[in-house]
Amino acid sequence: MKTYFVYFFSFLLLMNCASKEEDLYTPIAYNLQIPELFSDKLIAPIFPVDNPLTIEGIALGKRLFFDKILSRDNSQSCATCHNAAKAFTDNKQFSRGVSGNFGKRNTMPLFNLAWNFDELFAWDGKEFGLETQALEPVTNPIEMHANWVNIAEKLNQNETYINLFLQAFGSEKIDSTLVTKAIAQFERTLISGNSKFDKYLKSEATLTESETNGFNVFMDEERGDCFHCHGSNNNPLWTDNKFHNNGLDTNFTDLGLGKITGDPNDNGKFKSPSIRNLAFTAPYMHDGRFTTLDEVINHYSEGLKRSSTIDPLMKKINQGGVNLTAKDKADLKAFLLTLTDYEFVNNPAFQK
Prior knowledge:
Keywords: Heme, Iron, Metal-binding, Oxidoreductase, Periplasm, Peroxidase, Signal. By secondary structure, this protein is mostly helical.
């Protein structure tokens, strides 16, 4: 008799386990929609093996990105500083955190992050991997100023999130790892690749005479000489995703990459941002010191400052810059604005 009950309860246990396995939802794989120029000129993005893109994971990441639940007092979300309509910036020199404090770096735009093959994020490269990058703003006292234990507790008390995490990751327990995985999935879908210049390269648009000369200035080592750091018609990212000292200061109040690596040779170096969507991302530079594109162009033309780590690409440092004519400056600006992607900032898939 005793043996019979053992077999009977074992059978019930196995049936229960089988039922749970049958009920476990399998997320649907998502194929990233890669622009034609990116496919032609860049290698495909590489995704973490433990965080593949899924429809459910991306949808969850988007919901979290716009949800103020991730901040200490439910007053700010990721989107507070990364506004989709502004190419995921906020147009402020420094952003205000939930406690009223301000940082000392300008908000970086968010797009084409899947092609950052070095996986170093932020102006100083302090974050390795998109999932890791999403961890820090939640706890940073000058940003969302929360702690992950409390955030996880709030999410674990929310039936909607419990179901969404179960669908996306097969887990009923929500923690910081899964939250940042979801946000990273959403961020990898933020692709900007349909500007006027992209269409020009596909023979779908025509540049004006001024825009054409501006592109030539951009590519000419004897004039603008911009392409080494900011891409070209063969690099649709329009950044090298590397770190440079571009002659902003003689003495450094912000060490940039140097503070992360501890190498004095890296002092004053900051990541080259993409020059796509500059119409939406003012002010410019890591500290937002320039409010207009004209100021940026003037800096490279006659405002360079020498320092111990000045980048060798600042070849005309002895002349203070590349010394562009007024016409070349105006044409260069006209070209830069052809990299404005209105479809990107109006894409409903990236809106709340």
